[in-house]
Amino acid sequence: MTDWKFTGGLPPLSDDEWFQEFEKYKQSPDYKRVNKGMSIEDFKFIYWMEYAHHMWGRGLGIIFALPFSYFLRKGYITVRLGLRLSSLFALGAGQGFIGWLMVKSGLEDPPSEYTQTRVSPYRLVAHLTSAFVI
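The structure assignment produced for this chain is given below.
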């Protein structure tokens, strides 16, 4: 959950892999300031929610990109339509990038020891707003 790769990758499959992933999370400010003492079962729930969210976004990108490339290769898409569809794809990719920046902001140490760790509210709003716009 603290080390997402662009290409995705498999979630932890064995107990040992879950333990390693949980240990990485324990090093994050989110665990230290908000979820200290969380059980591995609670961690798994959060992990699966995040994983499903990421896979949903990637899946939408693939569902868009594959038919687009097929129809583009076959010559069924005009230049004007191709530009519009490419713009939509770029908006989706941008929305994913904003989401990545948002999550990254929640994994950084806050400026003060009295401040709770949170994702940037501006990035959160930008991520949600771009989803609605798209």
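Interim note for the steering committee: The mean pLDDT is 87. The longest helix spans residues 40-74.
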